[in-house]
Every structure is written in C-alpha cells, then in structure tokens.
Design a protein that fits this description.
A: mainly alpha, 3% strand, B: Structural Genomics Hypothetical 15.5 Kd Protein In mrcA-pckA Intergenic Region, Chain A, 18% strand, disordered N terminus
C-alpha cells in the first residue's frame, strides 16, 4: 500500500488548502469542497483485501493534520477530514483512527479551544467520533517496524498550514509582567534601604545594573514583534495578489515596524539563498565522490556467483537427465508426449509506478 | 543439525542461577517522572523509548472516560441530549448542527445514482485515483484475476476479523491491552532483498511469553535428525521440538527462558557468561512462563530476539500496543491471533512435481541427481518393494520444507 502514500497526502493537502482559502471553520464549507472534489471516491475501486490497508493509510495520513504544529483552522479541517473519511470508508469492519497517548493532551486542548470559541460543529463531530468509538487508543501514531531509512525523506510539511509562532506572546503575558514589576520594585527598595543607612541621597550609580524601565521595555519589544508579525502576514498576502496593494498596506504600518520588517526580510532572503548555494556545492562534491567510488568499487568488488549458479555447481546430475532438466520442468511439459513445442515461457509485464 | 546439538550439549549442567527481574528500577523511575510511561519516539518513525506496558495502559485508562473504551455502543439520543446540555444549545440549533454534520452532506453523487464502489471512477482529479486507474488497467491487461496469495490473505481474515466470543467468560475484558508482534523468519538468505518475511501475531497483555513461544511456528522445530533409509516409518517420532525444548526471548537486557519442562535447560547462560568475561553490562534472567506482557518494559518498534533449537534466531518486534476496541476479535480462545503470514516458495518432489518434498536422498542410484528430493509417496514407490523392503543402496534423510507451514 506504500505506493500511494504520496498521492493520498497530496490529495489531502489539496482539499485542506482549498478549505484554508475559504478562511472558515464551518463543516458546511468543508463538505461543499468535499463534494466538489468528489473525495468519497477515493475509496472506490480498491480490491477487497486492500480495502482495510488503504483505509488505514488514508486515516493515518489525515490524522497528521489534526495535530500540532498546524494552525487551528487546518486542525479543524483535519478533524472534518478524519470524520468524513471514517464515515465513508468501504472497509469492513471499519478501520479506526489511531490516537497516540502523547497526542491526547493536544486533542483535549483542541476540544477546549473549540468549545470556548463555540464552534459547535467541530465539537459535535469530535464528540460524535468519540461516541461511535472511532478511535484506537494506541502507544504510537503508526505501526513501527524499525524501518530505518537510508535516505531520510524530508517530509515537507505544508508550510502554509503551520501556525505562526506565538511563544513570545505566550511567555510574556500580563501576569508575568506584573510579577516582574513587583520583583523589580522590591529590588529597587532593597537597594534604597541599603543606601539609606549610608545617608546618601541617591544610590550609587555603579549599582544600576538593570535598566530602570525594564518592564515597559520588555512589553514594548513583544508588541513590536507582534506588530511585525502581523505586518509580514499582510505584506505576504499583498505580494501574492498585487504588488501595489502590498505597498499601501506597508505605508499604513509604523516606521519602526517597517524598518524591522525590512531587516528581517533581508535576513530571511539571505537564509533562503544560502542553503541553495550550499546545496549546489554539495551536489558537485557528491558527484565527484560518487564517480570516484564507483570507479573504486568496480575494481575492488568481488561478485559472488548467484544462488542458482552455486546450486547447479553443487548438484551433480547424471547422464541424459541434464538435457531434460534444462528445458522448463512444468507439469504441462511433462505430460505432453512430443516435447517439440517451441512455446516461449510467458513474460509478465512489470508495472512501473 | 549437528552444530545445533553440540551447542545445546555445551551448555553447562549446573543448576541455573536465576535472578528474577524485579521492578525496583521501574518504581524509582515512575516516582521521579510520571511521563516516562507515555511512549515517545527515540528515533522518529523507527522506535520508541522504553516504557512499561502496564503503566502505559493505566495512563490511558486514567485519561479516558469508561464509556470511551467500553464495548457498549453509546445511545445516540443520550449523546445528543448530553451535548446540548453541556454546551447550552437549544433544540433548534441542535437539529441544524445535526443536519449539517450528517452523512448526507458528504455524498458526492445524486441519491438515485449510486456508483459502483468496485470501479475506479474514470475521470477523477484525485491523484490517488489517477494512479489506481493506471494500476487497474495494467492488472486487467495481465489477465490474472486473482493472486493466490491474496486468496490466502482473505481466508486468514475471515478466520479472525471481528469474531465474537461464544460465552461471556471468553470475552476479552474492556480496557485490555492488545499487542501486535512481528516475528521474523530466521535470516538465512544469501542475497539481500527488501522483503522481510514474518508472521504477525496479535496478543493480549495478560498472555505470558510462553504463549507467544507456542504460537510461533518455525520449521526448525519440525526437523528430524538422522538417516532413516532402513526404517522410514519411524522417522516422524523424532521431531526436534520434542527433544530440544529450551528457548529464550531477549528483551531489554533480560533473558526470558522457557523452563516449563524438566528437560529444559537454561541456554542463555553461555551468552551471559561470555558477556561477563568481556565486560559487557550484566544481563539478568527470568522465566518465560512467569512473565506477562503487561509486566514487560519494552520499546515499540525495537528488534528483540527469540532463540530456540540452540541457534534458530528470530527477530521479534512489537509493532503496536493499544487498548482493545469493540471491533477486535473478542474471543479469548482465538488468541494468539495470526493476522499475517509470509508464504515462501516450496521445493517440489523431483518425480511428481506436485507435492512438497519430504525426503532427501544421497548416493541414490534411482535418482536423477545427488542429492534429490522426493515426496513421501514417490519416495516409497521408488525405493521400497510392496512389503516395505529397502531396494538398492542409498541414504535417506527426512526433509522439512521451509514452506511447510504455508
């Protein structure tokens, strides 16, 4: 079943990227796209014994989109996809969705978020899946067979789907700021109390190890970061559609953010270019290496005779029987009286993927 | 064969010094960090870190509502009422949500034109279907209706999938752990290929390792040692399985020996002593029949060892561990469940070309080759007269084909 993994993945991505473009999390919208793409047909035409394997594969592929690092909208789309695939699979008995223990927290959090935002359809579908026992509660998301790959295939996560980083905002929240300012105040007081005994009007400037307006500064930086993020988002959108619109949206932004953005975009531009050039160099090096190796191995490698050759060496066959043995020993051959038929052995075409 | 026997004889006859594997380590770990039993990747998509199966099970049960893993189907109406109550939805909106999320909204064709689900839709935009169409067309051009192996696989499925227990006492209990175990055929191939022949067994957490051992079929258990040209009728009485009963599993530094029978020996001792002499980390021992899966600490996806007949070595991989589901085979008596078996090609009799070879002869004046393979019937007809007297001069050894278990 491995042969169609790539195709299934790209089909799912296509469906979800269409869903993303609608900027909605409604099941109605999703099912409309589902019908447009005739996604139910994905199960049609699988052979009986392949049905369960194919369902397994499809559900495993779709399950990835239901979990982080994808953003909330894609995860809702992933949930709808799982539900729709689960309900329309043709395998019997139904294949279950595999849910790993380590991902359980994420699912709980997702459900809470959906409830808080009153996305009734998403919550309904998740609970419905739970209710109809659509999940296997497993150790790992897929079956593991110690399948070490020689060539590690970078599974290109669809980057559009991934959530924007929000760690700075999460880390520096109101409570933390309050706490920080409290600590800061205490610290200042302590310093003052030390110098009060020394009867000095102002504390020693050598003790000013920390900026005075430390807390507002941090807050300002995070807000700047957030603004920049917002701006790169809308700038990105602008570029995709129309350059002129991108310009106008940039003008709206503050001067500082603009400068920041230009620095960042330069940085990213370089980062994007650098690996390319490295890749190019690597290819060259690899090429020469390979050539050298193949040359070497050609001269050094000893080829062992095949099992067939070794067997025919070790088995000694007496007299005339050898002559008969060389012709195909099918039963049909043995049963025909005159073995003069010059039928060629059947050649099977091989399927190329 | 000879080598095998020697190796078993080499093993010391001292009373085996068994140090039971006690979970002291385990308890210390769990108290320090509760999350050690939530399996996570050691190497992504290859294998997991070490975890305790029993604790893994209780971690799941701790998180789930009993209704989530029970076999009873939940009542649809109760579910909806519950949902409406919990989220504070009034009935009108509830019916709307229900209709939006119904299966009707997923139907991709008009209601009266149900397409044939066995046919690949011809003009699809889905890449999967484009590929499948191509593949189906190719298969059709081959004029082979069905592969023999597919038929076998279908038959195996019918035996196991979704079987219900006859009595309640035979039911697998709710919240039980189901393990999927791949046991690989011993690696004896001269050539590397990408196929890794194996059998797949499904077991529950309350099974012991000895039950896994009994479920593993291997032709080396059926081998018969010796030359039987004078007494071909008594050959089947000397199967290796009955002579050499020792075996062990090796999981995470512990050798689990089979000690159920008085003639069993501790064949892991040689390895342990060898390792000790070379400053390897110490290994411990335990009894296979006293160890249940639920007590084991393992890595999912990691290759372990099953060794029997002295040197017949199989890799064992736990590919999956999960809670039991109501669609699983419910009958306890059918476990361990065989769900996949690799079929190997068989060597046929040199005379009839129909039956699988049972005898191999050497220095045989009747045979076209040396050595030569015969099925039981052809062998007796060619080498013995009507009264069962040996004709001519030859050596005959019982032969067990690799595909004997197909």
């Amino acid at each position: 079943m491995e042969f169609c993994r790539k195709q299934v993945k790209s089909d799912c991505e296509e469906l979800l990227s269409r869903f993303q473009r609608t900027e909605s999390v409604r099941f109605e919208i999703f099912s409309k796209i589902w019908r447009e793409m005739k996604f139910s047909h994905i199960f049609y035409g699988t052979m009986t014994h392949e049905k369960r394997h194919f369902s397994r594969l499809v559900l495993d592929t779709a399950c990835v989109f239901f979990l982080p690092p994808f953003n909330f909208q894609i995860r809702v789309g992933g949930l709808y996809l799982l539900y729709s695939l689960y309900r329309s699979q043709t395998a019997s008995p139904l294949q279950q969705i595999r849910l790993a223990l380590k991902d359980w927290e994420d699912v709980q959090k997702f459900e809470k978020d959906a409830v808080d935002a009153q996305h009734l359809d998403a919550v309904y579908i998740l609970r419905q899946l739970m209710c109809i026992k659509a999940f296997h509660f497993t150790a790992m998301p897929s079956l593991l067979t110690f399948n070490k790959k020689r060539k590690v295939e970078r599974s290109a996560l669809c980057e559009k789907f991934v959530e924007r980083t929000s760690r700075p905002q999460e880390l520096i929240n109101i409570e933390l700021l309050e706490e920080l300012s409290n600590v800061h105040k205490l610290y200042e007081n302590l310093k003052n109390s030390v110098f009060a005994t020394a009867e000095q009007a102002h504390p020693d400037p050598s003790l000013n190890l920390i900026q005075k307006d430390f807390v507002p500064e941090i807050r300002g930086t995070v807000v700047d970061f957030y603004k920049w993020q917002q701006m790169t988002d809308c700038a990105g959108d602008g570029e995709a559609e129309d350059a002129g619109e991108g310009m106008s949206s940039q003008q709206e932004c503050s001067g500082r953010a603009e400068r920041l953005a230009s620095i960042k975009s330069k940085a990213y531009g370089q980062a994007a270019e650098a690996p390319k050039s490295r890749r190019h160099r690597q290819v060259e090096i690899d090429f020469s290496n390979n050539a050298g190796q193949s040359h070497m191995s050609g001269s050094v490698r000893m080829s062992r005779p095949s099992l067939k050759a070794r067997t025919s060496d070790s088995v000694d066959i007496s007299g005339d029987t050898w002559k008969d043995a060389t012709t195909p020993t099918l039963i049909s051959r043995l049963t025909t009286l005159n073995s003069a038929s010059d039928e060629k052995p059947k050649q099977y075409k091989r399927f190329k993927w | 064969m000879k080598k095998k026997k020697c190796r078993q004889k080499l093993i010391t006859h001292e009373p085996p010094r068994i140090t039971y594997f006690v979970g002291g380590n385990m308890a210390a770990n769990t108290s320090k960090d509760v999350n050690t039993n939530i399996p996570d990747y050691e190497y992504t998509d290859v294998n997991t870190k070490l975890f305790h199966i029993g604790s893994f099970r209780s971690e799941w049960l701790k998180r789930l509502k009993p209704s989530s893993y029970s076999f009873q189907a939940e009542d649809e109406e109760a579910f909806e009422a519950n949902f409406a109550k919990e989220l504070g939805v009034d009935p009108e909106i509830m019916t709307k949500v229900k209709s939006v999320c119904s299966l009707e909204s997923l139907r991709c064709h008009p209601e009266d034109q149900q397409p044939d689900p066995e046919v690949v839709p011809p003009d699809s935009t889905l890449k999967t279907l484009v590929q499948r169409k191509k593949r189906q067309d190719h298969r059709a051009s081959l004029k082979i209706s069905k592969n023999r192996h597919d038929l076998y696989a279908d038959e195996l499925d019918r035996m196991t999938v979704g079987r219900k227990a006859e009595s309640v006492a035979d039911m697998v209990p709710e919240g039980e752990v189901i393990l999927t175990i791949n046991v690989y055929y011993p690696a004896v191939f001269d050539k590397f290929n990408y196929i890794r022949p194996h059998v797949t067994l499904v077991m529950t957490g309350s099974h012991s390792l000895a039950e896994l051992r009994d479920a593993i079929c291997c032709v080396s258990d059926l081998q018969v040692c010796g030359e039987f040209s004078n007494t071909p009728d008594i050959a089947p009485d000397f199967i290796s399985k009955d002579h050499f009963k020792s075996a062990f599993f090796y999981f995470e530094g512990v050798f689990y020996n089979d000690m159920r029978f008085p003639e069993c020996q501790d064949i892991s001792m040689t390895i342990i002593e060898w390792a000790k002499a070379r400053n390897f980390p110490p290994y411990s021992q335990a009894k296979m029949e006293d160890t249940r899966f639920i007590d084991l600490k393992i890595k999912v996806g990691f290759p372990y060892l099953y060794c029997h007949q002295g040197d017949c070595e199989h890799l064992v991989i736990f590919t999956d561990i999960r809670l039991v589901h109501k669609n699983d085979c419910m009958d306890k008596k059918l476990y361990p469940l065989l769900i996949h078996k690799h079929r190997v090609t068989t060597q046929k009799c040199a005379v009839c070309h129909v039956y699988i070879g049972r005898w191999i002869t050497k220095n045989d004046q009747f045979a076209p080759s040396n050595p030569c393979l015969f099925c039981d019937k052809c062998f007796r007809m060619l080498h013995y007269d009507a009264k069962g007297n040996k004709l001519g001069d030859f050596l005959a050894y019982p032969y067990v084909d690799r595909g004997a278990f197909n």
